[in-house]
Design goal:
The chain is mainly beta. Helices cover 0% and strands 51% of the residues.
Length: 295
């Protein structure tokens, strides 16, 4: 067997050669028997083009929970399909939005239907983690004052704090913040944390800056057998708790109590406001003995 080609450049002596032409070509065969007899033949092979490079545009990484757009502009004479590794994604659109949860390869297969010629192109997208900030600090302030807030420090992360109804004293761009709450209000502390991949996440807390309650009450000492009336004069109180010093209690605003024995008793009032801020005050109440008349 003597194989040649037109255009020239191919030679082989195999009976069934394997060829991989890059353009349309004619293969010429001259078959010679052991007796010197010959016969010529030709094989015409048309080489069809593959689809052209798709020029895919996308990001090579994405933050977990976010999406990425992959797009290309296909010519009108091809068909195409997207698939993925790991499997689970498929689409016939030229523009796709994907939200991978782990590193994923997206494979575009383009096919020319008239010839069956195709090509595969792969885009790999890495998935980066996002921060998970949790702000720790006071959510209730009993009166104005300074409070500290913080999150767990993560190396190479950046921190941007926002404060409403308070003054940021120190700590911007760090994981630790000091705020001066200088007015009675409902405030907010918000943090945006960004890691080295450019992935960001936020956390926020509401801070109630409440008027600090001040306990106060008055009463008159009495003789045994008469009730003592405890008149509340507290400010910003919404709940009351009384301890009369003899193992008895009450939870009304203006309490009264009759003691079983004369003596001196420590009376304590504990008050709280609507957000749980508390104050207390104690006085000594005297119950005088009555005369023991003997006839």
């Amino acid at each position: 067997y003597q194989w040649t080609s037109s255009p020239a450049g191919y030679h082989d002596t195999a009976s069934n050669p394997y060829v991989k032409p890059k353009s349309t070509i004619v293969y010429l065969l001259k078959e010679i028997t052991s007796y010197g007899c010959t016969k010529n033949g030709t094989v015409d092979i048309t080489v069809n083009p593959n689809p052209t490079s798709p020029n895919i545009r996308t990001k090579d990484s994405v933050c977990i929970g976010k999406s990425s757009r992959i797009q290309f502009h296909p010519p009108g004479y091809i068909s195409y399909v997207w698939n993925s590794i790991p499997t689970g994604f498929s689409s016939n659109d030229s523009i796709i939005n994907v939200s991978p949860v782990t590193a994923t390869a997206y494979i575009l297969t383009q096919t020319i239907p008239s010839t069956g010629c195709y090509r595969n192109d792969t885009i790999k997208i890495k998935v980066n983690p996002i921060p998970a900030p949790v702000i720790k600090g006071d959510t209730v302030m009993c009166g104005t004052g300074i409070s500290t807030y913080n999150v767990t420090n993560a190396a190479a992360d950046s921190y941007s704090w926002q404060v409403k109804s308070g003054k940021l004293n120190s700590g911007q761009n760090t994981p630790n913040l000091t705020i001066n709450w200088n007015a009675i209000s409902t405030g907010q502390v918000k943090l945006i944390e960004t890691n080295r991949f450019g992935c960001a996440n936020s956390d926020s807390i509401i801070v109630n800056v409440s008027n600090k309650p001040v306990a106060g009450f008055h009463f008159l000492n009495v003789c045994l057998g008469n009730p003592i009336y405890f008149k509340d004069s507290s400010t910003f109180a919404k709940s009351w708790s009384w301890e009369f010093g003899d193992s008895t209690t009450s939870n009304i605003e203006n309490a009264s109590h009759i003691y079983s024995h004369s003596g001196t008793y420590k009376v304590t009032e504990v008050i709280k406001n609507t957000v749980g801020c508390a104050d207390s005050l104690s006085y000594l109440a005297i119950v005088y003995p009555v005369p023991d008349l003997q006839w």
